[in-house]
Protein: Xaa-Pro aminopeptidase
Organism: Flavobacterium chungnamense
Amino acid sequence: MKYHQIDRDLFIKNRAKFTAQMKPNSVAVFNSNDIYPVSADSTLPFAQHRDIFYLSGVDQEESILLIFPDAPYEHLKEILFLKETNEHIAIWEGEKLTKERAFEVAGIKSVIWLQDFHKTLKEVMTYAETIYINTNEHYRAVIETETREARFIKWWKENYPAHKVEKSNPILQRLRSVKESEELDLIQEACNITEKGFRRVLNFVKPNVMEYEIEAEFAHEFLRNRSKGFAYTPIIASGNNANVLHYIENNQQCNAGDLILLDVGAEYANYSSDMTRMVPVSGRFSDRQKEVYNAVLRVKNEATKMLVPGTLWKQYHVEVGKIMTSELLGLGLIDKADVQNENPDWPAYKKYFMHGTSHHMGLDTHDYGLLHEPMQANMVFTVEPGIYIPAEGFGIRIEDDMVIQEKGEAFNLMRNIPIEVDEIESLMNS
């Protein structure tokens, strides 16, 4: 891995929190992701399943974590199953985790080679009454490919039909949404790398540059700072492209007078950052661009004030909508009649601001979190209002990553990334 090793105490704490929620005499199993094929002998780069990483720190394919806190023998309480490394693998792929190295990473003493998983599981299941299976129940999840986890669940149901079944996901949704201090430090590092990329780009942007050239500048800066790269597919959207919410082609020329919407974020140690900034191609915002930009910035600042313990996500968005409505009236994009006659299910402001304002962030860019439950301290949320005006040839979105505090305003992990019009213009023209 490119990143510095994470203190195993984080993963020991995470497992302790999970086991505290398990029912008596139950076992939980977590599988790594597959390495997905492309064609011939080509594969996509490996990306670890975030749940097994959260609980173990193991960042390697063909790995399984088994947790059985009530096991009658100590060596069965926590087990890592890993692909056995050997000299051939070390020569062709690089050495995989040894048993000793796995203990350093995860703090798990019992490490068994993967070929003995079924034999060990058979013993475990004679003692256990319940198994926790790990299904993906994220509200945005759309899954068309059968995962390693799904194959295991199917196999387990066929071979152990008499055991009770519980779901690990509701536990993990709550645990992963509230970050430990070590996790906040890792997200901060991802944000710091994103800042370096943004400052690099401010010195690079000029008329006629291509969107993909800007993407390449970010990638260069991310990789040289121990990131694997982008936490999600980057959006480099100039001119009217910014009005396509998930524009990812990044293949157009940036023209003088236009704005560029940069929705990018570096990952670090599998943790995400998520930033959006606006850059004027010519180094200066027009008066109208500045007017709309500052309106969006005011909405962001007011929305941030509501990110406090106890806030309900659904009501939060209703309140942000009221603030946005006021700004759109001031910009002349809607009038009082539009508001008076609006459809409550699709308010007038939605014509120009059609997406949500905030989502959980952490190991996943759209991280785990139960949206019907109140916000808590140490949750990390994005704040990303936008105004999109195709008729005027530009759209504006501004986004920061915020940590909810026990008291007071949320802490901005992107506080050092330029955001004010004057600062952006000054840096671009220095």
Notes: The longest helix spans residues 181-202.
